[in-house]
Amino acid sequence: NAGVTQTPKFQVLKTGQSMTLQCAQDMNHEYMSWYRQDPGMGLRLIHYSVGAGITDQGEVPNGYNVSRSTTEDFPLRLLSAAPSQTSVYFCASSLAGQGKYEQYFGPGTRLTVT
Amino acid sequence: SQKIEQNSEALNIQEGKTATLTCNYTNYSPAYLQWYRQDPGRGPVFLLLIRENEKEKRKERLKVTFDTTLKQSLFHITASQPADSATYLCALPGLPGYSSASKIIFGSGTRLSIRP
Description:
- The complex is a heterodimer.
- By secondary structure, chain A is mainly beta.
- Chain A has strands at about 5, 10-15, 20-25, 30-40, 40-50, 55, 65, 75-80, 85-95, 100-105, 110-114.
- In chain A, the strands form two sheets. In chain A, strands 2, 4, 5, 6, 9, 10 and 11 form a seven-stranded mixed beta sheet that branches. Chain A has a four-stranded antiparallel beta sheet with strand order 1-3-8-7, with no helix packed on it.
- Chain B is mostly beta strands.
- In chain B, the strands form two sheets. In chain B, strands 2, 4, 5, 9, 10 and 11 form a six-stranded mixed beta sheet that branches.
- At the A-B interface, strand 4, strand 5, strand 9 and strand 10 of A face strand 4, strand 5, strand 9 and strand 10 of B.
């Protein structure tokens, strides 16, 4: 198993540009989440999904969209990038629906918005 | 609103000693609490989960306690080694019970350094 994969690893955007961060997992996990990590602030939940077709907002959802059309993929869209969205983004998945609550994280995407 | 505090931003201890990290929470009644390890440039890695009806959990040199009255978890690493140097994060479900298992909220982490 590849586990949780994220692409790209690094990205630089100009203010106002849009892009999609990709996340995929091959463990048949129903639960998937997106987090951002900023220095001194830990991980903050952006959006999460409990299964295909079901998504919900986390702590900091503004400026981000998600969709979950398949169990494997959970892309995160930045509609109009802002410097405040400069961060490291992590995707995670789990089998929480089956009582296994440990999350498996991807390697992260480091995004810089200028 | 829910709040998680990890009391020490950084902790430096000597090899061989026991490291103790603290996680406090407010406005929660979590069904469980998790601890993760994060190395620089990498995603967090799950270490341990302790449920609300468990006082203590052990895994090799790791021990976690969970006091729902004090709203606190302690994470211990015994016989610490330089390889244990990393940032340690605690995490809880954002809503009571198990139904919000995907809405996991993290503390800001404690950076642990073990000196030889």
